[in-house]
Amino acid sequence: MRSNNNTMTTEQLITQIRTKKSFLCIGLDVDLNKIPEHLLQTEDPIFEFNKAIIDATHDLCVSYKPNTAFYEAYGIKGWQSLEKTINYINEKYPVIFTIADAKRGDIGNTSSMYARAFFNDLDFDSVTVAPYMGKDSVEPFLAFENKHTIMLALTSNEGAFDFQTQNDPETSGGKELYKVVLETSKSWKNAHNLMYVVGATKAEYFTEIRKIVPDSFLLVPGVGAQGGSLAEVCKYGMNANVGLLINSSRGIIYASNGVDFAEKAREEALKLQQEMEEILG
Question: Which of 132, 191, 126 is nearest to 163 (CA)?
Answer without folding.
Answer: 132
